[in-house]
Specification:
Order of helices and strands of chain B: HHHEEHEEHE
Number of strands of chain A: 6
Number of domains of chain A: 1
Number of helices of chain B: 5
Number of helices of chain A: 3
Largest sheet of chain A: 4 strands, mixed
Strand content of chain A: 35-45%
Largest sheet of chain B: 3 strands, mixed
Helix content of chain A: 25-40%
Structural class of chain B: alpha+beta
CATH topology of the largest domain in chain B: Alpha-Beta Plaits
CATH class of chain A: Alpha Beta
CATH superfamily of the largest domain in chain B: Cation efflux protein, cytoplasmic domain
Largest interface: A-B, 25 and 23 residues
Strand order of the largest sheet of chain B: 3-4-5
Radius of gyration of chain B: 27 Å
CATH superfamily of chain A: Cation efflux protein, cytoplasmic domain
CATH architecture of chain A: 2-Layer Sandwich
Radius of gyration of chain A: 16 Å
Shape of chain B: elongated
Mean pLDDT of chain A: 84
Distance between the termini of chain B: 38 Å
Number of strands of chain B: 5
Helix content of chain B: 55-70%
Shape of chain A: globular
Oligomer: heterodimer
Strand content of chain B: 15-25%
Chain lengths: ~120, ~180
């Protein structure tokens, strides 16, 4: 598990702050599902099995990677039918970037959105 | 899915290796195979040996079924459209395009039994639509309408212009029966 490490910017050197990729993924995941036009996260086979088993995976559909103090995030979603995908993607990128940067103090260099499918309403 | 595929490839190679080794050994020492055959033949119906063989055979069959299911399944999550923006990239899967196109095709009158594929995803996505129509309509007119509807829908949803939508009418249906 990669761990992003950020030196604290206090005048006194109190130590360092470390944030795991899993934590970043959870923050990004929670931010993503709040965006209009996102039906759900797309977690692939393992995510699906975990869901069937009743395991709640807050980082489902998110792959976060930290390189020095920079964060690269890949977000896998299922879009709502009728949503304008480029707009939804931009909103996710903005929201994830803002939320992750605010909570971790690290820079989000890329938030790549992967639209895996669209949800068809049953009616 | 990639990890699962790798695991299945590994299991396939391993099983092939085991069977090959058994085959080579059997060829070199035919007595070995004969003795195993005699043992199985002499074992009672519900003996541990027979049940063991049954269990191992079912296990191998299950693995083969999983391999066929996984490899035989068409990969739908391939990227069809990629858009770069200031925040990174947005990629849209072929499955997304197919779903959007299929829904639009279903809303087009006089189009039945619709099957859609997204191909040539390395360059620009090309949509192939196969469908059946009733015997009374003009196929060129309905095809143009279908192409326009799909193109507009995908433009609206993804902001990408699909330049090539191939239509193949491969059957005639009776709409009353449908």
């Amino acid at each position: 598990m990669a761990i992003g490490e950020l030196a604290t910017e206090n005048s006194e050197n109190l130590g360092t702050l470390r944030v795991t990729d899993d934590v970043i993924a959870i923050i990004a995941g929670l931010a993503t599902v709040e965006v209009d036009g996102v039906y759900s996260m797309s977690g692939g086979l393992t995510g699906g099995i975990a869901e069937v088993l009743g395991i709640k995976n807050l980082s489902k559909g998110i792959k976060a990677e930290t390189k020095e103090n920079d964060i690269y995030i890949n977000i896998y979603i299922i879009a709502e039918f009728g949503a304008r995908i480029p707009e939804v993607a931009w909103n996710i990128q903005e929201k994830v970037k803002k939320t992750v940067e605010r909570m971790t103090g690290m820079r989000v260099m890329e938030a790549n959105i992967h639209v895996q499918s669209v949800n068809i309403p049953k009616d | 899915m990639t990890k699962l595929r790798k695991l299945l490839v590994f299991i396939s190679v391993f099983l092939t290796g085991v069977f090959s080794a058994f085959g080579v050994y059997s060829a070199l020492d035919t007595d070995f195979v004969y003795k195993i055959g005699v043992k199985i033949n002499n074992a009672s119906l519900f003996s541990g040996l027979r049940l063991g063989i049954l269990f191992v055979s079912l296990f191998f069959l299950a693995i083969i079924a999983v391999i066929i299911f996984t490899f035989g399944k068409k990969e739908k999550n391939i990227e069809a459209i990629r858009i770069a923006n200031a925040g990174g990239t947005v990629s849209i899967s072929a499955q997304t395009i197919e779903t959007l196109a299929k829904l639009e095709a279903q809303n087009t009158p006089d189009i039945y039994d619709i099957r859609i594929d997204v191909v040539d995803t390395d360059t620009k996505p090309v949509i192939e639509v196969r469908a059946k129509v009733p015997p009374t309509i003009s196929i060129p007119s309905i095809s143009v309408l279908l192409q326009e509807n799909i193109r507009n829908k995908i433009m609206e949803a993804t902001g990408t212009d699909i330049e090539n939508i191939k239509i193949l009418i491969d059957g005639i249906v009776d709409p009353e029966k449908k």
